[in-house]
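Box 3.1 A note on notation
Throughout this textbook, protein chains are presented in two layers. The first layer is the amino acid sequence; the second is a token string describing backbone geometry. Keep the layers aligned when reading.
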Amino acid sequence: MLSSLSIDSVALSAFQNANVTNITFSEDRDYGYTVNIDFNTMSVSLSQNWEKWSTPKCDANGCETPKALEKQDSISSDELKIIGKKFLTKYGIDMNSYGEPKVQDSFPMIAYE
């Protein structure tokens, strides 16, 4: 498959014993995600597709500073766990090898152990 590809005047067929080691694809939608599959480590990573997430508005005077979040802006640990489980279910991520989610107190994110 690689021997017949040519991208922007680069003949991939010139590379010897080439293998596909990872594949990356991104959702083309607002707040979409990017998925990277690494065949060397047999791992999958998921991150925001930064081109599709909102960014601060900038003009000649600089960029706006987003309002800092405060304690009252946060949601409960139980709500965070529900959101996390729905996300994992939506994307078919198998969590059978992990325990129940725990919310880290130092930063509002879900950690699985």
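Residues 108-113 have pLDDT under 50 and may be disordered. The first strand starts at residue 6 and ends at 7.
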